[in-house]
Design a protein that fits this description.
alpha/beta; ABC transporter transmembrane region fold; Rossmann fold; four-stranded antiparallel β-sheet; elongated
Length: 602
């Protein structure tokens, strides 16, 4: 029960974080600290309780200098004090020290609840946003860079959060308590303590810009390395096939050398920062000792008070030093917040909010003067595309590479939006439809099939529940997978490996076709769906397709013109325009663009 509650709580956290980031105009202007503050909404109670236990558990470091001073004063002036005073001070400090065990555990417990909750929620919010980003945005963002943001940058933000509560908060509390006790004892000594504040601010100001710049450069190099390593892993078969191992190693080594250089410069800046801080405050501590010793020598304070003030000043200096030393870690976290915000506040998303949801579709399409050009380019990928498609009709798109065939399919799927004209489905502008509800009635078999590392059954039934074995067996037969699966020792439960790496290209494509078949779609998108099949497999799959497309609107892109002979109509694309439309026989008889393409394949 508690596990279900925690999962529900995490889901609510992710949704809450995601909704916070939907207001991009607010978050883009927000400072990193304000952004971090917003992450902890709903967890402030845990943080405040943690802070309460922090104050209690830290009592020994506040009480010890006082007890030490008392014992020294008693020992140096036995005429005025009894020996029992030493024992009383001993038992007081003993109790104060022992209570640290339960209170420290409570402090970490409440702190961890908040930090871990935000860490998981932030990663979940990133994943949700990645699912919302437009396809164009995903094409611009390397997979390795995205992985770095989800893993490394979130970890850096988590570490910064911990530093705030484990190092910064205790340091601030120590400074306040030590200063308050010192001020109560001697306002003259407390004024000396105040001098540490402008000195610490000066040191941070001097090094802040260099540390921030070094962290930014180092973070970008890490993202670049992550991206290149991801590419290297995918390219290993090509690298091996062409004997280019040394070339690839040199390419990665070049990136690693850049990281080494940036990391070295970052370490050097932090080293100067830390040593400058240490030397400055050690000098201050010596000056404090001389000053309080001078006061004791003149009889203005007792000898034990020198030790007490030295203890409190050491505590203040240690806290200030700690604050300054964690600044590089905080700077790293702040830079990671900038990195994460690049994704979370991105406005290049597929926005389905408030749009019409569809319970069912007929599959009737109308392209009205559709144009498409990419941002920053005057070249039109599509220009004045006008076409009516009846429900249940099979339309094939052919043409040379770059003619705009796959772009039309991406418009039908909703991956792209026209920059001019309209795509109308069942009398509704596709731009006004909630594409998530619309795509439930689609089945897509892309040119590059995509499998995940699960079983064959998992890949066929991806995203669907309550699929019977009979349904699976039917689509397995239709996709010409029966013989292949029958030869496997684990049948449908065979693991396909990452990206289906244990299977041949044709086998992966047939599994992708079976995945489309099992969905029983109203609209079918086939982008070179049989390109990886041998002639015999293609023949069987084509027969299955003929059964599948009956009564369903089908859009096909094919380079093998023989595979689209039975399409109701063939649309010939050229330079982003429709050059010809007709049946196979009509286009062959006209001896136009389609005829010329066909002749090239003979």
């Amino acid at each position: 029960m508690s596990e279900r509650v925690e999962k529900a709580r995490l889901s609510a956290a992710a949704k809450g974080l995601a909704s916070t980031f939907e207001n991009a105009s607010l978050e883009q202007d927000a400072s990193p600290l304000k952004f971090l503050f917003s992450l902890y909404k709903g967890n402030f109670a845990n943080l405040f309780v943690s802070l309460f236990f922090l104050l209690i558990k830290s009592a020994p470091i506040y009480v010890l200098p006082i007890v030490t001073a008392n014992i020294i004063n008693i020992a140096t002036n036995p005429a005025k004090h009894s020996i029992s005073g030493i024992w009383i001070n001993f038992f007081i400090i003993l109790i104060v020290i022992l209570q640290n065990i339960p209170t420290h555990a409570a402090y970490i417990s409440f702190l961890s609840r908040a930090v871990r909750y935000v860490e998981a929620g932030l990663r979940s919010a990133l994943v949700r946003k990645l699912q919302q980003l437009s396809i164009n945005q995903h094409r611009e963002l390397p997979a390795g860079k995205l992985q770095s943001k989800v893993l490394r940058d979130v970890e850096a933000v988590e570490m910064m959060s911990k530093q705030f509560m484990i190092a910064l908060a205790p340091a601030v509390v120590n400074i306040i308590v030590s200063f308050a006790i010192t001020l109560n004892s001697s306002w003259v000594v407390s004024l000396f303590f105040v001098l540490t504040i402008p000195m610490s601010i000066t040191i941070v100001t001097i090094f802040r810009r260099k540390i921030r710049k070094s962290n930014k450069e180092f973070r970008k190099e890490i993202e670049q390395m992550s991206s290149r390593v991801s590419e290297m892993v995918e390219m290993i078969p090509i690298t091996r096939a062409h004997g280019l191992e040394k070339v690839e190693i040199e390419r990665i080594d070049s990136t690693l050398r850049n990281i080494q250089g940036k990391g070295y410069r970052l370490d050097l800046v932090e080293a100067y920062f830390g040593s400058t801080n240490w030397v400055t405050f050690q000098i201050f501590q010596v000056l404090c000792l001389i000053f309080t010793a001078y006061l004791a020598y003149n009889g203005e304070i007792q000898v034990g008070d020198v030790v007490m003030y030295q203890g409190f000043f050491a505590m203040i200096l240690g806290s200030v030093t700690g604050l300054i030393n964690i600044y590089p870690q905080i700077a790293k976290g702040l830079e990671s917040i900038h990195s994460i915000k690049e994704i979370l506040v991105s406005t290049d998303i597929e926005n389905n909010s408030g749009k019409r949801k569809l319970a069912g579709v007929r599959g009737e399409f109308s392209f009205r003067g559709v144009e498409l050009s990419y941002p920053g380019s005057e070249h039109h990928v599509l220009e004045d595309v006008t076409l009516d498609v009846e429900a249940g009709e099979c339309i094939a798109f052919v043409g040379a590479s770059g003619a705009g065939k796959s772009t039309v399919l991406n418009l039908v799927i909703g991956f792209l939006q026209p920059t001019g004209g309209k795509v109308i489905m069942d009398g509704i502008d596709l731009a006004d439809i909630d594409l998530r509800s619309y795509r439930k009635h689609l089945a897509v078999v892309p040119q590059t099939n995509i499998l995940f590392s699960g079983t064959i059954r998992d890949n066929i039934t991806y995203g669907l529940r309550d699929i019977t074995d009979e349904q699976i067996q039917r689509v397995v037969d239709m996709a010409n997978l029966s013989e292949f699966i029958g030869q496997l020792p684990n049948g449908l439960e065979t693991m396909v490996g990452e990206h289906g790496g244990k299977l041949s290209g044709g086998q992966r494509q047939r599994i992708a076709i079976a995945r489309a078949l099992v969905r029983q779609p109203s609209i079918i998108i086939l982008d070179e769906a049989t390109s990886a099949l041998d002639n015999e497999s293609e023949f069987h799959v084509q027969k299955a397709m003929q059964e599948l497309i009956k009564g369903r609107t089908t859009f096909i892109v094919a380079h093998r013109l023989s595979t689209i002979r039975d399409a109701d109509r063939i649309v010939v694309m050229k330079h982003g325009r429709i050059a010809e439309v007709g049946t196979f026989e009509e286009l062959m008889a006209s001896k136009g663009e389609f005829y010329n393409l066909k002749q090239l394949q003979l």
